[in-house]
Amino acid sequence: MAEDASPAVPDGAAPDLESLPGGVKAALEAVLMVIDEPATEAELAAALGVPAEQVRQLLHQLQAEYDGAGGASGADGAPRGFELRSIAGGWRIFSRGDFAPVVSRFVREDRTARLTQAALETLAVIAYRQPVPRARISAIRGVNVDSVVRTLLQRGLIAEAGTDPESGAVLYRTTSYFLERLGIGSISELPELAPHLPGLEHLGDLDDLAR
Amino acid sequence: MAEDASPAVPDGAAPDLESLPGGVKAALEAVLMVIDEPATEAELAAALGVPAEQVRQLLHQLQAEYDGAGGASGADGAPRGFELRSIAGGWRIFSRGDFAPVVSRFVREDRTARLTQAALETLAVIAYRQPVPRARISAIRGVNVDSVVRTLLQRGLIAEAGTDPESGAVLYRTTSYFLERLGIGSISELPELAPHLPGLEHLGDLDDLAR
Amino acid sequence: MNGPGPVADQPLEPAAQAPQALPRGKQRSFEVTLDNFSGPFDLLLGLIAKHEMDITEIALAKVTDEFISYIRRLRRDGEWALDEASEFLVMAATLLDLKAAKLLPSGEVESEEDIALLEARDLLFARLLQYKAFKGIAGLLSRQLAEEGQRYPRQVPLEPQFAALLPELVWRTSPQDFAALAAKALQPKPPAPTEVGLSHLHAPKVSVREQAGIIASRLRAAGPQTFGVLTADAEGTLVVVARFLALLELFRAAVVAFDQQSPLAELTVRWTGPESAWSAERLGEEYDNAEYDDAEYDDAEYDEVPEGH
C-alpha cells in the first residue's frame, strides 16, 4: 500500500501515464487488478499523480465497462467475468457474483489440501514467536513469505493480531483452529523448543541474528 | 484438479454457463480472478465443465481482447491495464508491464531486485545443465559457488533435485518460480546456448575436464 | 594436429558482453595496458581466442600485476570488484594453461604427450568459450528477469465465502514434529559469508603463501627453473593458479625474476632474493586483509583461493 497519500509522488517517478497505451484508465486498472486489499481513491490518486476526482470518474467508468454498459466491454456488450466493487471505502476487482457456482467448483477441486513444507515452517515460526510481524517472519525464514502467509490466513490457521505499537506493522498469531488441528488445548502446550536446539535456550536473543 | 471432466459434478453444480450473461468466456474470466498460481487449460476446463479445446480458444480470445485487438477491449480499442499470459505451464493474469512504476507502489514483493553477476552466471549454468551438482557448477564457473547457490535457493529460483547416484552429491534444478519470473512456459523456451558457443557441440564432455 | 580451428575461428562476439547487473550500478572494467595491447581484459581474451594476438607475446605477469594494483586501487577507494576478481582467477588459470600449451616446439608433434598438450589447448579454448557463453546467457537472463519483473501477477486472497469451500486441510504433523520444524526454522542462518569454504570441492584448500614457500625453496635449492617445471607436480588447476599467483607475489616482492629469450621462448624463473632469512609469511597481505562488509557482496567468491590458514 502507498504509505503516504500525498500527491507529491516519492522518488519523483510520476510516470507520463497519458503517453502510455490506455492512459490513466489502464494504469488504474493495472493497480486494481493486482492489489490484494482494497485501495482508497486517495491512495490511487496519489500513486497515479492525478486528482482524486478524476480517479473517481475513471473508477465509475471502469465499473460500467465491466458491467457491460455501452457495449464497451465484450464485443457483444456482455458483462465481463469480473467486477469492480467498493467495500469499506476501498476499491478492488472481484470475480462477478453471477459466476460464484463456477468459482466454487474450481475452489472445491483445489488439490492443495496439504500444507507445503514452506507453509508448515512459516506456521511454526508464527506459533513460537507470536504475535509477530510479517517482516520478522521473512527475516527468520530468509525468503519472502507473502504468499505463504496468505495461504495460512485463508486456511484459518493464523489471524491478524493488531499492529506493532512501534512500527505499525500488522502482527500475526495462530488461531484456535490451529490448536484444534495440532491437537493441543492452548499455545502453552506447544512442545518446548529446547530439546531440538541444544544449547540455545535464549531464543529471544537470537532473533536479531537470525538472518 | 479433477482429472476426469466427467459431467457428473459433485453436488450437481454443473451451472448452465451459456445462460449466464457473458457465457463461458466470462465464467473463465471469473475463475482467472481467483487463482493464485498459473492454472492449466485442463484445470480450467474441469472447473467450467467444457472441453479443453474450447478453453484454449477462449483464453486466446481473452488474451487478444486485453491486448486491445479488434476494439473489443476499451471502447477505444486500447489495451487494458492487465494481460493474460501463458507461463510456467499455466495461465495467469498480470498487470501490464508499462504500468510497473505505479503498480509497484501497491505491491509488497519486489520483483525488480537484481541478482549479482555471479548469481546470474550460476543460475545460467544450472538452467542449462540441470540437474547439476554444485561441484560441476564450480568447475564451469571456475570459482566456488556455495554462497551464490544458497542465495538462489533462498530466492526460490532453484531447488534441490535429489542426489547424483554415483557421487552422492546434491543436484540442483531450476523451479517453476524461475520459469514464472522469466515469463516462459518451460525450460525448452530458454534462449539457445549454441549461438553463444560457436562450434562446440559436445559440451557435456568438457565439463568434466574443466577442473 | 587438429589445431584450435573449429573453435578459435569463430568470432567471439563483443555482443555477448551483455549489460551486467553490477552491484553498484556503476560500470567498471579492468583495463590492461601492455606494449602491444591496451583495452578491456575481456577484449584481450577475445583477441587471444581469435589468434589475433599470440598468447606468448602477452606479458602475463604484467597483466596480473596490473590487475592486482587495480584491485588494490578499488579497495583504497572503498570498492571491491569481487565479480571481476573471481573472474580473473578463471581467466588467469586459462591463460596460464594456454601459455603452457603454446610453449611446445611449434609445428612438430613428436610424442603422445605433445598431442595431449595440443588437445588440452583446444579444450582450454573451448572452456574459455563455454565460460563466456554462460556469461552471455547470464546477461540475457538478467534482461529478461528485469523486463518480466515489470509485470505483477494477480494473487489475491479468496473471498471468505470461497475460502470456506476449500477442501478440509490434511494435517499429519504431531506437536513434536511441529516443534522440530520450528526449531529448524528458528535456528540462526549462517551469517552472510565474508569468506567461503572450499569444503564442498573435492580439491583441497590451497594457500598462495604455502605455494610461494615451495617455489622459493625449490628455486633456491635447484636454481632457475621454467614455469612448466615449477608446476609439473601440481595436483590440479587450483594449485597451478596458486603457484601462478605466488610467483606474481614473489615477483612483486622482488625476490624472483623472469627471463624470456624471445617471444616464443620458454619462461624461466630465477631466485634473486636473499639466500636465507626470507619467509613467505610476508606475502599476500592483500588477500588476508580482504574486508568487505557490504551485504551486496554476499556472493563474494574471491578470497577463498588465495586465503591460507
How would you characterize the overall build of this protein?
Chain A is an alpha+beta fold and 211 residues long. Chain A has nine helices and five strands, in the order αααββααβααββαα. The longest helix of chain A has 15 residues, at 52-66. Chain C folds into two domains: 6-104 and 113-148, no CATH class; 208-302, Arc Repressor Mutant, subunit A (Orthogonal Bundle). In chain C, 46% of the residues lie in helices and 5% in strands. Chain C has eleven helices and five strands, in the order αββαααααααβααββα. In chain C, the strands form two sheets. Chain C has a three-stranded antiparallel beta sheet. A two-stranded antiparallel sheet of chain C has the order 1-2. In chain C, β1 and β2 (38-40) form a beta hairpin. The longest helix of chain C has 37 residues, at 112-148. In chain C, 39% of the residues are buried. The model of chain C is unreliable at 1-28, 191-204 and 284-309 (pLDDT under 50). The interface between B and C is large, with 64 and 72 residues. Chains A, B: It holds the Pfam family SMC_ScpB. Chains A, B: Keywords: Cell cycle, Cell division, Chromosome partition, Cytoplasm.
List keywords for this structure.
heterotrimer; A: 211 residues; alpha+beta; Arc Repressor Mutant, subunit A; 2 domains; three-stranded antiparallel sheet; two-stranded antiparallel sheet; 9 helices; 12% strand; disordered N terminus; disordered C terminus; C: 309 residues; mainly alpha; 5 strands; elongated
